[in-house]
Specification:
The chain is an alpha/beta fold.
C-alpha cells in the first residue's frame, strides 16, 4: 500500500484526518494503521497525557509517527481495542507514536477507563516553574485516579478528605474511589461518574470538541450557552464566558480545521515510513536480536523504554501469533485475572515450560528469552519451548480450558480466603496474596500443574500450600534462591504426594539460612521484670540476639520475630472476614498500590506518643521514661498497634484517643456513623473487628489518655497491650495454619549454610 506516501517515505496528514482513521468507521481508511504484536499497551502517566495536549493546543510539535507496511495476513490489533486479528486489507503498523496517538485519541473519545477534561479557568495556582509551564489545564481522569490530580501539579494526588467530599456529591454517595469511574458503561454506572475535583470550570474535552464538529475538519464555533451545559452541576457556572475560553476555542480551531480558506494553516502530523519489511526474520547470527527488536529499542530510546519482561513478552508476541490473545484471555478473566499482569503471565508460563523441558530457569534475561525463541517460527512445532508454551496457554483438543489457566484457577481456590466456607477460613485475601513474589508462586504452580487430575490431593494439600505462602509473605525471602531450592525438593518428590511444605522449609533452613519459626507463645520473649514499669523494650530484648550482635548466643527466632513485629500488611489476614464485608467489589489489581480503600490505622494514635512541637509529660521520671523516648516509634508502628480500617472511618476518627475510637468506655448501644455503617454495635464488636483480644479490654482502657500525657501506669498498660496483642495474633496464625507441622524441622545455627 502506498497511501498516504506515494513515492516518498514521508507524508503529512491533518490532525482531523489522522483521528478519523482510528475513530470514524465510515472513513475509507478506518483502521488503516494498527499495532504490531510486539507493541505493548498504554504506559504513559497522567502528566504526560496532559502535557501532550497542552503542547498540541499551543501549536508545539509533538514529533512524527513511524509507520511500516502491514500485509493483510499479519496479525495486528486496533488502538481502540484489545483484540488481535488479521485484516482483510493491507495497511500500516504504528511502530513509533502509539503513546502519543492514544493520548491524542482521548481528547476525541474516552476510553473504557479514562476521560480527558479541560479547565476553562486560566489560573495556574503554582509558583514552581516545573508546574507552571502549562497554558491550558488539561485534566485526565482514570479508574486509578477518578477525581484527577492536583491542578498545580499533575503528579500529585488528592487527599482522602477531598475525594470524600467529591463522592458525597454523587447521587449514590459511594464511600470508596473504586466504586466511581470517569466513564459509564451502563445507566446504573452513570450515578457514579466522576469529574476533576480540584478544578474551577471543568468540561469534558471530547464533548467540547464534539460541539466544534469533531474531526470533520469543518470547525464550528460554539456559544457560551452550549459550552456551559457541559459543566457538571456541582460547579458554579460563570454568567459570562471565561476569557480563557476564547483562547481555547481559537487553539481548537487551529488544531481541528482542515480548511485553509479560513485563513489559517491546517495543523498536521508528519508520518515517516520504515523502508524495510518489519516481519521478524530469524537472525543471521544466533542469539542476535531481530531487526524489529533493534528498531523498537532505537525508537524508544528517548521515550518510555521497552525492556525487561515487557521486551520478552513483545518478542513472544512477534514470534508467536496466538500469544497476545491467549494471555489476554487470562488477564481479563474475572476468576484469575487479578493475580498476574500480562508480562507476569508470560514469565510464569515460561518458567513452567522450561521446567517441563527439564530446566529450572526462574528469571530469564531478554537475551536468554530470545535464545529460547531463536529457532522459532509461527509454526510452534519448530520449537520445543513454544510447543510447551502452547500446551500450557492454549486449550487442547479435548479441553475447554488451557492447563495454565486451570492451574491458576486451582491455585486461587486453594490460596484465597473463602468466606462461604467459614468466617475463620485460613485462606489469604487477594491483596495479601499479591504480596507474594511470582517467583515464589512458581513451585506451587509447578506442583498443581503436575497434579491437576487429582482433586482430592489438591484439597488435602491446602494447609501445606497456605503455610508455604504465608511464610513467604512474612519473611519476604530472596525469591530466586528460595524458589530454586523449593524446585529441587519438588524434583525429588514421588508422584501422588501432598505439597511438600515441610521438606521445602527444611531445605530453606539448611541451604539458605531461612528464619526459624517460633512455637506457640514464643513470638516475643517474656520479660516479666519490665511488664509493670512502663519500660518499652528494644528489638534485642523482645526478639533475642541476632547473629550480627552476638553470634554464639544468637536466637534462631530473632529474624522471624522481627519480620512479624513490623509487618503491618498481615492485618489483612487477621481482619479478613470484616474487610471482605466492608469492601465488596474491591479488586486490588484495578487500583494503584498506594490508593486503597483502607488505612493502616494506629490504634493508639501516633500523635499521642510523638506530639510534634509539644513536650511529652512523663511522670515518675527514671529509666522507664528514658526508654519511652527511645522506643516509642518501635511500639507505635508495631503490628500490635495497627489495624486495617476503612479510610473514611479513619479520617472521621481523626486523632481521637483509641478509647473513643473503640468506644471502650461505652455501656450503651453505639449509634455513631462509623458504628452504623460498619454494623458494629458494641465495644466488643469494635475489638473483634480490630483483631484485639477481648481479654485485653482493660489494658487498652488503661493505655488511654490525653496526647502527651504519659504516667507510668499508661506506659505500662500500652506496653503490655501491644506485646500481648502481637503474641495473640501470632498464636492465631500458628493454630489456623497448623504450623506445628513445621516444629522440629529447625537446624542449629552451626548447621545452616551461610548465605
Amino acid at each position: 500500500m502506498s497511501f498516504p506516501f506515494g513515492q516518498q517515505d514521508v507524508a503529512v496528514v491533518s490532525v482531523s484526518d489522522y483521528i478519523s482513521w482510528y475513530l470514524d468507521a465510515e472513513n475509507s481508511h478506518y483502521n488503516l494503521i494498527q499495532l504490531p504484536p510486539i507493541q505493548r499497551n498504554a504506559v504513559w502517566n497522567i502528566a504526560q497525557v496532559e502535557r501532550l495536549w497542552d503542547s498540541l493546543l499551543r501549536g508545539f510539535p509533538i514529533g512524527s509517527m513511524l509507520l511500516g507496511h502491514r500485509k493483510s495476513s499479519q496479525n495486528s490489533r486496533q488502538l481502540t481495542s484489545s483484540l488481535q486479528s488479521t485484516s482483510t486489507l493491507d495497511g500500516f503498523f504504528l511502530l513509533d507514536g502509539q503513546q502519543r496517538t492514544r493520548a491524542l485519541l482521548l481528547g476525541f473519545q474516552p476510553s473504557a477507563t479514562s476521560r480527558l477534561w479541560v479547565d476553562l479557568s486560566s489560573e495556574i495556582p503554582s509558583d514552581k516553574p516545573e508546574h507552571n509551564d502549562r497554558r491550558f489545564i488539561l485534566r485526565l481522569l482514570t479508574n486509578h485516579q477518578p477525581w484527577g490530580m492536583r491542578r498545580r501539579n499533575p503528579t500529585e494526588g488528592l487527599n482522602e478528605s477531598e475525594k470524600f467530599k467529591a463522592r458525597r456529591e454523587l447521587p449514590s454517595k459511594p464511600r470508596y474511589d473504586y466504586l466511581t469511574s470517569p466513564v459509564a458503561s451502563s445507566s446504573e454506572d452513570a450515578k457514579a461518574i466522576s469529574w476533576p475535583a480540584d478544578a474551577e470550570v471543568p468540561v469534558p474535552l471530547d464533548a467540547l470538541i464534539s460541539l466544534c464538529r469533531g474531526w470533520s475538519g469543518q470547525f464550528k464555533m460554539p456559544t457560551w450557552e452550549q459550552v456551559s451545559l457541559l459543566i457538571p452541576p456541582y460547579f458554579s457556572k460563570p454568567t459570562v464566558a471565561p476569557i480563557h475560553l476564547d483562547q481555547l476555542l481559537v487553539a481548537l480551531q487551529q488544531l481541528l480545521s482542515s480548511n485553509s480558506a479560513e485563513g489559517m494553516p491546517s495543523r498536521s502530523l508528519p508520518l515517516l515510513l520504515h523502508p524495510g519489511d518489519i516481519q521478524p526474520a530469524n537472525p543471521d547470527k544466533e542469539n542476535a536480536p531481530d531487526a524489529i527488536e533493534v528498531l523498537f529499542q532505537r525508537v524508544n530510546a528517548g521515550g518510555t523504554v521497552l525492556a525487561g519482561e515487557e521486551m520478552s513478552y513483545s518478542l513472544l508476541k512477534s514470534t508467536w501469533d496466538k500469544a497476545y490473545d491467549l494471555v489476554t484471555q487470562i488477564t481479563e478473566d474475572k476468576e484469575v485475572g487479578y493475580l498476574l499482569s500480562p508480562t507476569k503471565v508470560v514469565m510464569a508460563a515460561a518458567r513452567l515450560a522450561r521446567r517441563q523441558q527439564g530446566y529450572q530457569d526462574l528469571n530469564p534475561s531478554v537475551p536468554q528469552f530470545r535464545r529460547w525463541l531463536s529457532h522459532a517460527s509461527t509454526n510452534t512445532e519448530a520449537n520445543p519451548f513454544l510447543q510447551c508454551m502452547e500446551h500450557l496457554l492454549a486449550p487442547g483438543d479435548n479441553q475447554s480450558t488451557a492447563r495454565f489457566k486451570q492451574t491458576l484457577v486451582e491455585f486461587c481456590k486453594l490460596a484465597l480466603y473463602n468466606p462461604k466456607a467459614s468466617q475463620t477460613d485460613p485462606g489469604l485475601p487477594k491483596k495479601l496474596l499479591l504480596e507474594v513474589n511470582p517467583l515464589l508462586m512458581h513451585p506451587v504452580f509447578s506442583w498443581i500443574l503436575a497434579n491437576l487430575s487429582s482433586s482430592d490431593l489438591l484439597a488435602a494439600s491446602r494447609l501445606s500450600m497456605l503455610r508455604y505462602l504465608m511464610y513467604a509473605v512474612v519473611v519476604n525471602p530472596d525469591a530466586q534462591k528460595f524458589a530454586r531450592l523449593a524446585g529441587e525438593v519438588l524434583t525429588g518428590q514421588s508422584g501422588g504426594q501432598c505439597f511438600p511444605d515441610q521438606a521445602i522449609f527444611s531445605q530453606w533452613m539448611r541451604k539458605a539460612g531461612a528464619p526459624a519459626m517460633p512455637g506457640l507463645q514464643q513470638i516475643i520473649l517474656d520479660i516479666p521484670a519490665n511488664t509493670t514499669a512502663g519500660w518499652l523494650s528494644n528489638g534485642q530484648e523482645l526478639f533475642g540476639r541476632s547473629e550480627a550482635t552476638e553470634e554464639l548466643s544468637a536466637d534462631p527466632y530473632h529474624s522471624f520475630r522481627s519480620h512479624f513485629w513490623h509487618h503491618s500488611k498481615l492485618m489483612l489476614w487477621f481482619q479478613r472476614a470484616y474487610l471482605q464485608e466492608w469492601f465488596v467489589g474491591y479488586d486490588p489489581m484495578s487500583q494503584d498500590a498506594a490508593d486503597t480503600p483502607f488505612d493502616y490505622d494506629h490504634i493508639l494514635p501516633y500523635s499521642h506518643a510523638v506530639c510534634s512541637g509539644r513536650t511529652l509529660k512523663l511522670y515518675e521520671e527514671g529509666k522507664g521514661a528514658d526508654r519511652f523516648y527511645g522506643h516509642r516509634w518501635f511500639y507505635i508502628n508495631s503490628l500490635g498497634n495497627l489495624r486495617a480500617w476503612p479510610a473514611w472511618a479513619n479520617r472521621s476518627d481523626g486523632n481521637k484517643c483509641h478509647t473513643d475510637k473503640l468506644h471502650l468506655k461505652s455501656t450503651d448501644a453505639i449509634n455513631s456513623e462509623v458504628a452504623t455503617t460498619l454494623q458494629l454495635v458494641s465495644p466488643a464488636d469494635f475489638l473483634q473487628a480490630s483483631a484485639i483480644p477481648s481479654t485485653d479490654h482493660q489494658l487498652w482502657v488503661d493505655a488511654g489518655g490525653h496526647p502527651g500525657y504519659w504516667p507510668v501506669s499508661r506506659r505500662a498498660a500500652w506496653q503490655q497491650a501491644v506485646e500481648r496483642r502481637v503474641s495473640a495474633l501470632y498464636d492465631n496464625l500458628f493454630i489456623a495454619l497448623d504450623f506445628k507441622e513445621w516444629q522440629g524441622l529447625e537446624v542449629s545455627v552451626n548447621e545452616q549454610v551461610a548465605v
